Amino acid sequence: MNLIYYGRNSMDKLKIFSGTANRALAEEIVKELNIELGAVEIKTFADNEIFVQVQENVRGKDVFVIQPTCNPANYNLMELLIMIDALKRSSAKRITVVLPYFGYARQDRKDRPHVPITSKLVANLIVAAGANRILTMDLHADQIQGFFDIPVDHLYAAQVFIHYFQSFKSLDDFIVVSPDAGGIARARYLASRLELGLAIIDKRRDAPNVSEVMNIIGDVKGKNVIIVDDIVDTAGTLVNGVEALKKHGANDIYACCSHAVLSRNAYERIENSSIKEFLTTNTIPLRKQIDKIKVLSVANMFSQAIYHIHIEKSLGELFLE
Fold first, then answer.
1. Interval 143-181: pLDDT, tens
2. Is residue 208 located within the same domain as residue 251?
């Protein structure tokens, strides 16, 4: 993806701040834009209350706050809400919340009695705190965009995976696999862009973080596989799917996920699995690095999106390739 030119005059009103959840990504983004991160003090008192002070003038500025609500989700969410309030009370003209990863997205429906729709609640909190716009990537469910009563710009990590695999000498013996029926649209898009066939893992989930692979729909025998998902948490579902693909004759297996939550013993599961390479993005900082994991940066995508939002230009020309 080609960098765009960032004119100095157009950047005078732009301010970008980062919470503590993923400062490394924020620093990459501002480097792409050739500006500095805004100065903000964030600290925790002895009783774990969060304190935020914006340390520069944002009056009349177009402000972006970069903060994924990843683990620890509750702390990072609260920090984000307090930052938004601090910026609002400092007279920022517009506050765009950049959520590379939106935590609580998997609680997006009332699928049993007496449960909340937590992703809607979190959306309400962010809007109530003073956000004017959302920029995010690969929401777990598209309908979450409608949970926010403000504009939402939605980016797709598929772009970085497409560029990665297009660098291979040949994809003639490759096939894209969806890990479940819910991910078919995501897998179909990747398969279409790479001009590959599509297969689906048919599975039954009996409890959260537990799944049983039932069947492979499609022919993977003798194929190299690209299995694509939006979130990998404990990696149990992924590894079960990979082993099922191996039993059905798959060769090398590449796993792609937008958001590497990687809880519990996920790293060990990936390391000990038949996965050749686990590709993910830097929307969430990794707890540790292992040989099989390769991180692809989405900083360029976010930097271009931020610039286009700032100058009131459509994002469609950037990402609907």
1. 999 999 999 999 999 999 999 999 999 999 999 999 988
2. yes
Q: Contact at 8 Å (CB) between 86 and 92?
A: no
Structure tokens of 15? 């301010």
Question: What are the b/e assignments for 88-126, b being 16+ CB within 10 Å?
Answer: beeebebbbbbbbbbbbbbbbeeeeeeeebebbebbeeb
Residue 2 lies in a domain: no
Q: How far apart are CA 217 and CA 177, in angstroms?
A: 9
The CATH number of the domain holding residue 145 is 3.40.50.2020
Residue 3 lies in a domain: no
Q: Which residues contact 60 (CB under 8 A, 6 or more apart)?
A: 13, 91, 92, 93
Q: Give the total residue count for the chain.
A: 321
Domain count across the chain: 2
Catalytic residue among 110, 203, 221, 246: 203
Rounded CA separation 250/299 (Å): 33
DSSP string over 242-310: HHHHHHTT--SEEEEEEEE---TTHHHHHHTSS-SEEEEETTS--SS--TTEEEE--HHHHHHHHHHHH
The rounded Cα 64 to chain-centroid distance in angstroms is 17
Q: Which residues are CB-neighbours of 216 under 8 A, at least 6 positions away?
A: 177, 199, 200, 201, 202, 244, 245, 248
Same domain, 174 and 264: yes
Q: Are both 150 and 258 inside the same structural domain? A: no
Owning domain of residue 235: 158-296
pLDDT tens-digit map of 73-127 = 999 999 999 999 999 999 999 999 999 999 999 999 998 999 999 999 999 999 9
Does 247 lie in the same domain as 162? yes
Domain-located, residue 217: yes
Task: Based on the fold, state whether residues 74 and 146 are members of the same structural domain.
Answer: yes
User: Do both 172 and 136 map to the same domain?
Assistant: no
169 is catalytic: no
User: Can you tell me which residue has the tokens 């969806």?
Assistant: 178
CA distances from 296 to 164, 274, 293, 299 (A): 9, 21, 10, 9
